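ok trying again, last paste got cut off:
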Amino acid sequence: MSELTDELEYIFDWLVSLNPDYLNGYNPGLTRQKIDEIIKKLPFNLSEEIYELYQWRNGCAYDYNLPLREFFFPEQLYSGIPIPFCSLQDSVYIYTTIREATSDEYWNQKWFPIGDYEGKRMLYVIGDLNPSPVYLWDVGCLDDSIRVYKNLTSMISVIAECCELGLYQYIPDKYGEDDDMVIRIDEEKLELEKEIYRKYNL
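nice, full thing came through this time. structure:
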């Protein structure tokens, strides 16, 4: 396995150690042939990292009997809400819908979403860049998109190391039902998280 897949597996094993129901929280991965079939109408190529991501797992499984299954991302995303990891089919649908409804000033034709929270906050990569930086687009908070990670491998490496060093907490959601659990960073360890981020992104 590559570094990216190794780190993804580490994070997945960490999630399952918190709650075994996470085993069913993500769709099975796709074959390269299936990925090519799903993205064939896109006007650009996707990076090898994105192929590897979707060969590993095909986004969140939307079974509402499962516990919180969002593929969470660190605080560098300036968000207290996890951004779910989209299935490739959903990513293509979101991309196509936005492109048909907006101009280039609003959404660049090479921006491809891999994570989406209610159409208000997205993680995206750039088509035809291999590897591509990972950007955050936030309709409500940011005037422009910002580069969040150097590439997908650096992003996943940050998350994996934060898991390994115990920076994340699995805690009850104070805004949800009594049995809702969320993953949040330990606020006392924010400086360490920033160090980890710099380690992989400078």
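cool. The longest helix spans residues 3-18. The helical segments are 3-18, 32-39, 48-56, 88-101, 152-164, 190-201.
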